[in-house]
Design goal:
By secondary structure, this protein is an alpha+beta fold. The chain is built from two helices and six strands. Residues 1-19 form the signal peptide.
Length: 105
């Protein structure tokens, strides 16, 4: 192929137009032939086995265990004003799923 022809082909490709087309047509994940990520077919299901205040979380736990710290706070909440966060155990520490830091109330 001639070099000037390749230059003309590449000049006609519009990267922003491709990006807009991709953004307008997002990929929808399917599992078992059904659209995933909806209430009837969620992408992830977490079974939270425990719901308790931060002070009552067990001192020892199995890595990967989940709990709901009912008075745990996110980084944007003031001390003592936590509305609850999901936490996971890692090396006997309860880490907030929201921040990755040790949960605080």
């Amino acid at each position: 192929m001639r070099p000037y022809l390749l230059a003309a082909i590449f000049a006609s490709i519009s990267i922003p137009a491709l990006a807009q087309t991709q953004a307008a047509n997002p990929v929808e994940p399917f599992t078992a032939g059904h659209r995933a990520g909806v209430a009837s077919n969620p992408l992830v299901v977490l079974n939270v086995s425990q719901a308790m205040p931060v002070a009552s979380l067990p001192a020892t736990c199995t890595d990967g265990a989940l709990a709901l710290a009912t008075d745990g706070r996110t980084a944007t909440q003031n001390v003592g004003a936590g509305t609850g966060v999901v936490v996971r155990c890692l090396s006997n520490k309860w880490l907030s799923i929201a921040s990755g830091l040790q949960v605080q109330n």
